[in-house]
């Protein structure tokens, strides 16, 4: 028994994988043909040619008139050959129908960036579909020997080679299939996207923030109750905070805003729709009220066997208002540096109240939207930060990015001159809508 050389063995593996890919294309081609009238028409035309040819063959005893050069074949052999040719044409057509656009180009591009297994096989594109009303495409690749971790580690290399902006990479139906959600690399986020009132969500608990490469970025407060925003001066942090708080007022939430800069960032429109807090004593009363309201709702829901505010409103046809506490610079609120003992005790009470709301507020419809530009890990304690599931960081240095996102990516991915550009703790880069409150609501 002769031993195969390494190149022969790789060729055998390649041929085996190639047959599997062709089978995927063939099956996909049949499925797509069933759903496409033009493709069905093409198949019927082939069948019609096949039937006519057979009919002519049965009515012609001279085999030389059927195929040039085959005059020595019997009529049976000619019919068999026609069947084989028809079957081959049908298979080739189904494979072509099932082969996604750019499959060959992506195959070559993966080779260019070195995404190949030990047999020299690169991932093969077997499905390509576009989401409705979205720029994003779903790309399904078949690949052996390239684990998901390797795909994620080489994300930037794949983006550069395939000219794509990748939103996410997921495992497919098994370990040989990988799903990549991406958009064309030619599309880039605009530097500014103006707010339009039509953008506000119809869902009561949903707030929109901006647009990523893939789609609209939004937060559902019934699932992610608290938000933490960060960014250096001029990053657009305050504008994003205002955008969110404005939507809260439009949805008839009860909104409290702590602003120890004297409320200069919030004009008369805000004072008509929200409660602006600029003094320490008022803030103490406000936070105490919120904690008391939280415990009141807790007792009420327990008595009525309701698990959360949405269930209560749905069951009893009542509308308990959601409450939002916003703060433009939470570091100023919680900083104990240089304070005497009494003042530190007051800050500790603030911290305890905010931590209680962060821990229990979701079910009872009491939410926090906090913002900061201070790169100080000691300001926002772990209990508050760990209960804030949505965090976004704008233009910032590495320290602030590490504090907010637990990594320095915001410093690396966001230009030092960018305004309104944010990166979330789930790695979504987005451009926040620009809301100009000076023009009125």
How would you sum up this structure in a few lines?
The chain is an alpha/beta fold and 441 residues long. It has 15 helices and 15 strands.
Count of DSSP-assigned helices = 15
Percentage of residues assigned to helices: 40-55%
Distance between the termini: 84 Å
Q: Report the principal-axis shape.
A: elongated
Uncertain residue ranges: 61-73
How many individual β-strands? Answer: 15
Q: From the coordinates shown, what is the CATH architecture of the largest domain?
A: 3-Layer(aba) Sandwich
Task: Please report the first level of CATH classification, the CATH class of the largest domain.
Answer: Alpha Beta
**Mean pLDDT across residues:** 86
Order of helices and strands: HHHHEEHHEEEEEEHEHEHHEHHEHEHHEE
The domain count comes to 3
The name CATH uses for the topology of the largest domain is Rossmann fold
Largest sheet: 11 strands, mixed
CA-atom Rg in angstroms: 32 Å
Q: Topology, please?
A:
Layout: H1 6-34, H2 37-58, H3 75-98, H4 103-112, E1 124-130, E2 137-142, H5 148-153, H6 155-162, E3 164-171, E4 177-184, E5 193-194, E6 206-212, E7 216-220, E8 227-230, H7 237-250, E9 254-258, H8 268-273, E10 275-277, H9 280-303, H10 309-316, E11 323-327, H11 330-334, H12 341-364, E12 366-372, H13 382-386, E13 390-393, H14 398-405, H15 409-413, E14 421-424, E15 429-434
Parallel strand pairs: 5-15, 8-12, 8-13, 9-10, 9-11, 11-12
Antiparallel strand pairs: 1-2, 2-4, 3-4, 6-7, 6-15, 13-14, 14-15
Helix pairs in contact: 1-3, 2-3, 9-12
């Amino acid at each position: 028994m002769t031993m195969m050389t390494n190149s022969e063995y790789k060729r055998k593996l390649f041929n085996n994988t190639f047959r599997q890919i062709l089978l995927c294309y063939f099956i996909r081609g049949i499925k797509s043909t069933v759903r496409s009238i033009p493709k069905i028409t093409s198949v019927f035309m082939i069948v019609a040619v096949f039937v006519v040819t057979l009919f002519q063959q049965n009515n012609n005893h001279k085999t030389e008139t059927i195929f040039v050069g085959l005059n020595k074949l019997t009529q049976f052999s000619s019919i068999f050959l026609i069947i084989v040719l028809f079957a081959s044409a049908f298979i080739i057509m189904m494979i072509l129908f099932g082969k996604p656009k750019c499959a060959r180009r992506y195959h070559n591009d993966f080779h260019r960036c070195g995404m190949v297994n030990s047999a020299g096989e690169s991932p093969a594109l077997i499905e390509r579909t576009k989401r409705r009303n979205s720029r994003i495409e779903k790309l399904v690749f078949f690949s052996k020997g390239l684990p998901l971790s390797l795909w994620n580690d080489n994300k930037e290399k794949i983006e550069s080679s395939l000219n794509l902006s990748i939103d996410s990479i997921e495992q497919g139906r098994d370990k040989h299939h990988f799903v990549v959600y991406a958009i064309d690399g030619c599309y880039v986020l605009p530097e500014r996207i103006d707010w339009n009132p039509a953008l506000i969500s119809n869902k009561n608990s949903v707030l929109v923030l901006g647009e990523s490469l893939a789609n609209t970025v939004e937060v559902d407060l019934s699932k992610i109750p608290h938000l933490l925003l960060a960014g250096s001066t001029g990053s657009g942090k305050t504008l994003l905070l205002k955008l969110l708080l404005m939507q809260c007022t439009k949805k008839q939430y009860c909104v409290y805003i702590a602003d120890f800069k004297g409320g200069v960032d919030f004009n008369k429109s805000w004072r008509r729709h929200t409660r602006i807090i600029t003094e320490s004593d008022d803030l103490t009363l406000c936070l105490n009220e919120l904690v008391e309201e939280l415990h009141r709702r807790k007792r009420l829901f327990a008595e009525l066997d309701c698990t959360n505010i949405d269930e209560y409103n749905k069951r009893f046809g009542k509308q308990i208002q959601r409450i939002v506490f916003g703060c433009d610079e939470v570091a100023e609120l919680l900083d104990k540096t240089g304070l005497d003992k009494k003042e530190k005790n007051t800050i500790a009470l603030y911290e305890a109240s905010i931590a209680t709301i962060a821990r229990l507020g979701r079910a009872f419809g009491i939410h926090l939207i906090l913002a900061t530009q201070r790169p100080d890990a000691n300001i926002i304690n772990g209990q508050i930060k760990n209960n804030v599931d949505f965090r976004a960081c704008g233009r910032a240095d590495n320290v602030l990015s590490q504090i907010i996102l637990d990594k320095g990516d915001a410093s690396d991915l966001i230009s030092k001159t960018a305004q309104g550009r944010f990166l979330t703790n789930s790695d979504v880069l987005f451009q926040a809508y620009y809301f100009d409150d000076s023009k009125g609501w």
